[in-house]
Amino acid sequence: MSYKQTFENCFGEASEKRDWLRTAFLKSLAQTEKIAASLETMRDAGRLSVLGLPYMVEDLEALADHPFIKKQNFKRYVVVGIGGSSLGAQVLVSLRDKEDEPFIHFWDTLDYHVMKPYLSGRKLENTGFLLISKSGTTPEIMAQTLLVIEALNKSGDAKKVSEHCLAVCEPGDNPLGQIADKWGIERLDHDPNIGGRYSGLSVVGALPALLGGIDMNKVREGAREVLDGALASDQSAPRAAAALNHALYDLHGVRMNVLMPYAKQLEPFTHWYRQLWAESIGKDGRGSTPVIALGPIDQHSQLQLWLDGPNDKFFTLIINHELDKSPKMDVSIADSHPELEYLRGHRISDVVLAEANATAKTLADRGRFLRCIYIDRLDEKTIGSLMMHFMLETIFTCYLLDVNPFDQPAVEDGKRLTKEYLKGDK
Q1: Residue 14 — very low, low, confident or very high, per pLDDT cuts 50/70/90?
Q2: Which of the 8 DSSP states describes residue 334?
Q3: Of all helices (H) and strands (E), which one includes residue 204?
Q4: Distance (Å, whole) CA 10 – CA 243
Q5: Measured in whole angstroms, how far is the alpha carbon of residue 147 from the centre of its chain?
Q6: Residue 88 has what pLDDT?
């Protein structure tokens, strides 16, 4: 397994409160057996595509041979996507060195000052655009797509538009698909049965990842290992985490889930998790709010509240044991100042790990509900494992709370109203 999960103090010192939590946890854990059997049945029948992806290789082989990837004619690529059409890919691409070519950028914003530099001059000439919208109707992506096509057409012609763009959307008749057909842009199909927030292992995440040199087979291998374990055993990490989430929600009124990795490269992972959890679980008056943080930075902004504020949060720290390649610190540079002696001979990663362990112990000592996830290295297999873990944890928790993990009715209302406002109907 690419990671290890521990519940640091949730079932610690014997007390009536802890005994109740253990009982509630075991009851919820038993309920995951039926959910797992249902998920396995749906997967095997092809009715839950997201759980079929970890076993697929042919689609990755075809994608790797696609001219847009194989030729890599561009110095940089821009992913024109937002939310589920962007966040999963950002998680995967974060594994590479940002200075590596081709550069990969994400327009997960409508701020024109972010987009403008890529719409003219040499940057435009050397940029390929991935236009991604599951429905093919997302207002933000449609607006950005129109800007991209206009800029390319003005600097060349329709041929330039088709050469610089690749579209990903559901098959059939939709605005993005129609635009692609009109301008000769090749279309790749987005599986209609995979929601955006669950699409990181699909073409949506794989396309930018392959452009960035990420080994998607390893990503899916990690995901497959976690999925197989979760469907086979109630002792698996995703099912245990879901059971604890449900028990804390029911018994202790925990309404916030704090995710805090001690690795800058996992910052995009927290943004991906935030959408996954919030959009899946927040329905019918139920759910908990995801709170994202980054260690050690947020020790200086949020830790005071967490330790001295209300005990209404479930904390998850992701702690990386991998050593970095930084030089060992030489305190003689500071005249061997005695107050810096604790840094002598240590790497930066030693400092980060010490701070992570100190935060975990402090939270546990204060009686906060804490889960730690330990990884030995941050690579493709590990990131695939973590993505599948949190997808399954989300799905199991939603079913325990009796909500549908795959729809988002309130979000669809917001999209509809946006269009009405722009048309002047409101």
Answers
A1: low
A2: G
A3: helix 203-211
A4: 12
A5: 27
A6: 98
Segments making up each domain of the chain, as ranges: 3-40+218-410, 51-214
Active site residues: 279, 300, 415
Look up the pTM and report it: 0.94
Fold exhibited by the domain 3-40+218-410: Rossmann fold (3.40.50)
The Cα–Cα gap between 216 and 234 comes to 28
The reported pLDDT for the residue numbered 65 is: 94
Q: What is the pLDDT of residues 356-413, one digit of tens each?
A: 999 999 999 999 999 999 999 999 999 999 999 999 999 999 999 999 999 888 766 6
* Torsional sign, CA 100, 102, 108, 112: positive
Quick check: do 3-40+218-410 and 51-214 share a fold? yes
Interhelix angle 380-400/216-232, rounded to 10 degrees, is: 40
205-247 residue pLDDT tens: 999 999 999 999 999 999 999 999 999 999 999 999 999 999 9
Report the distance separating Cα 45 and Cα 241, nearest Å. 26
CB 91 within 8 A of CB 105: no
| pLDDT for the residue 1 | 81
User: Which fold is adopted by the domain 51-214?
Assistant: Rossmann fold (3.40.50)
Residue 66 contacts residue 182 (beta carbons within 8 Å)? no
Q: What is the Cα–Cα distance from 92 to 328, expressed in whole angstroms?
A: 29
Whether 242 contacts 393, CB under 8 Å: yes
Element (H, E) at 49: none
Interatomic CA distance for residues 238 and 257, integer angstroms: 15
DSSP-derived pairing of the beta strands 127-132 and 76-80: parallel
> Percent of the chain, pLDDT > 70?
95
Q: How far apart are CA 197 and CA 216, in angstroms?
A: 18
Task: Please tell me the predicted confidence (pLDDT) of residue 352.
Answer: 95
d(CA 280, CA 317): 21
CB atoms within 10 A of CB 173: 9
Task: For residue 264, count other CB atoms closer than 10 A to its CB.
Answer: 12
